[in-house]
Amino acid sequence: MAKYFDVHPDNPQPRTVSQVADSIRGGALIAYPTDSCYALGCKLGSRDGIERIRTIRRLDDRHHFTLVCQDFAQLGQFVRVDNDVFRAIKASTPGSYTFILPATREVPRMLQHPKKKTVGVRIPDHVVTQALLAELGEPLLSSTLLLPDEDEPMTQGWEIKDRLDHVLDAVVDSGECGTEPTTVIDFSDGEAEIVRRGAGDTSRFE
After folding, report:
1. Of 32, 148, 161, 175, which sits with the fewest C-beta atoms within 10 Å of its C-beta?
2. In Å, what is the CA distance from 81 to each residue of 65, 107, 112, 118?
3. What distance in Å separates the CA atoms of residue 131 and residue 176, rounded to the nearest whole number?
4. Degrees (nearest 5) of the Cα angle 52, 55, 56?
5. Residue 188: which of 107, 83, 95, 116 has the closest Cα?
6. Closest by alpha carbon to 100, among 175, 173, 189, 28?
7. pLDDT in tens, 173-186
8. 137-147 pLDDT tens trace
């Protein structure tokens, strides 16, 4: 049965945020809000968390997981970014974008695309997510909470708890967030390729 954390959207309660972070450190799989839509998240490098996300979403091994980072300095520890790509990403963050880039050695092999050795990264523009990342001190391993055979993610924390109570350890609810996943930009070859059009404006990458 998933724990339910009710977090204020503008002034997240430090004690509650700390409890959520402790749950993640202890191996919990959580559902949490972002600036695009709800996501599934677990501790970086949690093999159990990865397998549970794959099961919930029915993902194959070619799926790009995302490292949700607090800031650009943290992001730079996990992906290789040249100068041109740096400027493009810097101008778009924080925001509703996921960038696919070559992974550094800091990224566990099981998170990397099996052939390309890439990983997704993003910096969200969401008060609660940022508070959680600051408390956690490391990225959240994440994937959009989009269930198989459904066109849109769920938007209500109580609905997520009701439907996924048996497969999650915690649900963070700070009110309704969006229904559009992030826009995904693949920079793995140095040029911007729009993989998915979502909540972020694509005009600067076209």
Report:
1. 148
2. 18, 14, 16, 12
3. 17
4. 85
5. 116
6. 189
7. 998 888 889 999 99
8. 999 999 999 99
Contact predicate 131/161, CB 8 Å: no
Kindly tell me the burial class for residue 183, based on how many C-beta atoms sit within 10 Å of its own C-beta (0-12, 13-18, 19 or more).
Answer: buried
- Give the tokens for residue 110: 């099981």
Ramachandran bin of 118, using left for φ above 0, alpha for ψ from -120 to 50, beta for the remaining angles? beta
User: Can you point out the beta strands (E) in the chain?
Assistant: 3-6, 30-32, 39-43, 66-68, 97-102, 118-122, 140-144, 170-173, 183-186, 193-196
Place of tokens 């972002």: 34
What the block records as the tokens of 142 is 């994440």
The sign of the CA dihedral 57, 18, 131, 73 is negative
What share of the chain has pLDDT > 70, as a percent? Answer: 100
Q: Which amino acid is at 132?
A: L
Query: What are the structure tokens assigned to 90, written together?
Result: 């810097």
> Which tens digits make up the pLDDT trace of 45-79?
899 999 999 999 999 878 888 999 999 999 999 99
Cα–Cα dist 126/133, whole Å: 11
Q: Are 182 and 205 in contact (CB under 8 A)?
A: no
